[in-house]
Description:
Elements: E1 6-7, E2 10-11, E3 16-18, H1 27-35, E4 40-41, E5 46-47, H2 56-61, E6 72-76, H3 80-93, E7 97-102, E8 108-109, E9 112-113, H4 122-135, E10 140-147, H5 155-165, E11 169-176, H6 188-196, E12 201-204, H7 210-220, E13 224-227, H8 237-247, H9 256-274, H10 276-290, H11 297-305, H12 310-331
Parallel strand pairs: 3-4, 3-13, 5-6, 6-7, 7-10, 10-11, 11-12, 12-13
Antiparallel strand pairs: 1-2, 8-9
The structure holds flavin mononucleotide.
Flavin mononucleotide (FMN) binds at residues 19-24, 44-45, 74, 101, 103-104, 143, 173, 204-207, 227-230.
Domain DUS-like FMN-binding: 18-318
Cofactor: FMN
EC number: 1.3.1.-
Amino acid sequence: MLPTAKIGPYTLPNPLIVAPMAGVTDRPFRLLCRKMGAGLAVSEMVIADSKLWHTRKSQTRLNHQGEPEPRSVQIAGGDPAMLADAARQNAAFGAQIIDINMGCPAKKVCNKAAGSALMKDEALVREILETVVKAVDIPVTLKMRTGWDREHRNAPVIARMAEDAGIQAIAVHGRTRADKYNGEAEYDTIAEVKASVGIPVFANGDITSPEKARRVLTHTGADGLLIGRGAQGRPWIFREILHYLETGKHLATPALDEVEQILTEHLSALHGFYGEKMGVRIARKHVGWYLQAHDESKQFRKRFNAIDNAMEQQDSIEHYFARLRKEEEFAA
Length: 332
Ligand SMILES: Cc1cc2nc3c(=O)[nH]c(=O)nc-3n(C[C@H](O)[C@H](O)[C@H](O)COP(=O)(O)O)c2cc1C
């Protein structure tokens, strides 16, 4: 059964959210994941200091044209007033939800503690949460880790603080800051967070299959899930998980034709969004992820990564899939 997930006034179409990933969850990827079934896609983080927003990178991050509602924009920083200002400005640009990043393991953003490093300073966390919530009249959400190290898993404390401050939903990645991305995510602390607050809680970390999604939801009692790396090169993971949660049955994995179509459209969107030069570069890592499932793709990837124009990238993908289809026919 599918839990109903709400964030403030918004009832999400379903409880599966694309986790924010800087350098990955750009507008083309967010749109694609929504199309493939995700109920919400959080933007890549925007640095709170608006003096830095004139750069091309920031401008593309601030672009949400054509995205389905609600549009959630993540802000990152360590200064309450600056974060409040960033929240206000993003709301004016069309954000409908502001998400505060306390989950990123990067040490500093703009020379100040930010991301999960903030979790060590609970007084500052309280100030940030209260200031940002007061600054805007749209829902503010919080994304955090379970704590700053395994001896200090203070996510439940911060979750209660967040609820008191008026935060509308919380996402917890089941690792501490000190864990970085090592080891496996744990879900006991997420269950504790869920038991500590009345606002919606979303579980995150290492959810890469429908079965794991089911297990994490059951174990934590969470209202929904955030999926990050599991969607890289596999945006259809959202519909697969949804189908499994709804029916208990597995959806067939997409056929080669569909994968090719999804990938080609994704490349076109990247080329269009970033322009050819940058789009071609960004396309390389996505292609690498899509083709991970195919054993002999390493050599292809090497050749693909040397291509420096959009048309050739598309041709090369077309040839690659034509060959795969032939191999499939031969093996059948
Ligand atoms: C490349 C990459 C970029 C990320 N960028 C952000 C970010 O901008 N903001 C954030 O809160 N978390 C960020 N994260 C963390 C993810 O949102 C997520 O919490 C983490 O990857 C665990 O979930 P997963 O196992 O489903 O990937 C990033 C993760 C990756 C792999």
